[in-house]
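pipeline: protein-struct stage 2 | run 1193 | Amino acid transporter transmembrane domain-containing protein
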Amino acid sequence: MRSLEQEMGARKVAEEMDDDGRFKRTGTMWTASAHIITAIVGSGVLSLAWSMAQLGWLAGVATLFIFSAISLYTSSLLADCYRDPLSGNRNHTYMKTVKTFLGGSKYMVCGLVQYIFLCGVTVNYTITASISMVAISKSNCFHKEGHGAAPCKFSNNPYMIAIGITEIFLSQIRNFHKLSWLSVIAAIMSFSYAGIGIGLSFAQVVSGEGEKTTLTGVEIGLDLTVADKTWRMLQAMGDMALAVAYTFILIEIQDTLRSSPPENRVMKKANVIATSAATTLYMLCGGLGYAALGNHAPGNLLTGFGFYEPFWLIDLANIFIVVHLIGAYQVVAQPVFNLVESWAGARWSKSKFVNEEYPLSISKNNLAINLNKFRLIWRSVFVVVATLISMAFPFFNEILALLGAISYWPLTVYFPRQMHISRNKIKRGTTKWCCLQLLNLVCLLVGLAMAVRSIRESWHEQSFPYFQALHILKVIQI
């Protein structure tokens, strides 16, 4: 009797496992699309009206569509690399995929760039979410006390701490497979606050109060030199390129998909859905925002309609931003969490502290979650460190802009292209090989231009972190 029970238990466990010994994947095209949208549609969508103003209608629309097409194409190339063509084994991470097809030291470079960028994004999300929370407090204060109220000043630090505490709890969600509901909520939030910006822009345009726009964007004049115009155009192009890039997390999302139908086919469909939805949203936000606010469109679309009124609508948009960023934080942090936990599991395979799961009942209906001691401590420490960095370096967004510029070309174009060439044994000198090299060169130049622009902007005395770091050191010495 006992042997029969043991056999049934073993059979049940086997049914719950995938072909690689991991828990059975349940992801679908829609959950993958939600993960992608959560990762790429950030609050930066509200800056696209400014980007359109720098480039104008002709270059602005063309640039957004071109970079969307490039991102979709290279993502499709990467999706085909999820499984090893010889053994059929899965590549669970971007880094492992590069190791399978390119080997050598390239996978180490890939991992270094990818994980540093992802860690930086978590800090960026903490800062940006706190800024939105401060904006809500200021809006309510100004509405209550009057627009000239002196007491309406708030520190970001308490809000960062609150975000950090929330992320500690959410970080205990074990992996991407359990994260689908949070991604769906975050994706809905991103469409919601972008929708508010689109609605306000549309209302201003149809009322006939739209500002002046031009085919070439902001015009050179007394307040804008040729050099300034050029640098602004480079920044706008960089913002658009980064806005549609998501290959840095694609393989990790693809690893959540069930094995039938083939993961690469499902992932390609998810790529099309997510990229089409994001590009449409970007075009509406950028285009209508530019049409409404003209060549003087601000960096944040919502502030172009007045910071104070309608205060409740601006508050609602900022609430949506906060909820979205809290969810997006978990999406971009999961690869970092899994990297460390996979390494620790392999290094201490017999350790109960590292590997043992403890079911914790959270309701009378026997609803339970699994806790792991190592996961609890390690992920909590990660969130605490990210929060402390956010509080110590509120200018970190400028550092992230440089990290994004550096990571764009290798993660979005170079590695997917190289793996595609290796996988399909494309011969040097063929038409396809030459086209892939041309694409690589163009995106390399774009990445270099973004990096140079970020460095130039950072060296400005009012924005470069060095000068603010000196100020922090002086405060500490005092």
